[in-house]
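User: Teach me something about this protein's shape.
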Amino acid sequence: MDWKSIVGTVAPTIAVSLGGPLAGAAMGALAKVLECVPQNAEIAKAMAAASPEVLAAIKKADQEFQIRMSELGLEPEKIEAADRASARERQEKMGDKTPQILAYSYTVVFFTLIVGEIVLAMMKLDIPPGVLRSLDLSTGILFAFVIASKDYFLGSSAGSKSKDELIRHQWDTTS
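Assistant: First, the predicted structure itself:
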């Protein structure tokens, strides 16, 4: 399991911040609890060995992070939403097709890689472990790109939740 998905379960505010302009602060908060350098590889290694006590400390750090961000007037979800909105606005104004090209490319390469892995499995070839790790890593990275593209063009679960709450609120006030 990816360390970021574990953080997403245990510390949702920190997890949301990892993908935006507050990533440095979020990494710092995690690294402090994990007692490591705030770098992906170091945090991944520490998360892999995290005990239930450490996970509880990360949950507490998430609550403190959320309070600190509120004190500073920062809301990670709003900052991330504004970041996406400005990217979409830029794309619209410039007529830039790069995001679509990248999204299609990620998707085609991802599914090509999946088909290739199925073919390799069916051929029952003896593939060196290093190559398998590389394929797994590539598949994971491409999957993340495909999901990010989907979120960019179609919205994320958080965006859908906010939209649903807005619609519900408008419905309640009009009925």
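Now, about its shape. The chain has two domains: 3-76, 97-174. The chain has nine helices and no strands. If you'd like, I can walk through any region in more detail.
User: That's plenty for now, thanks!
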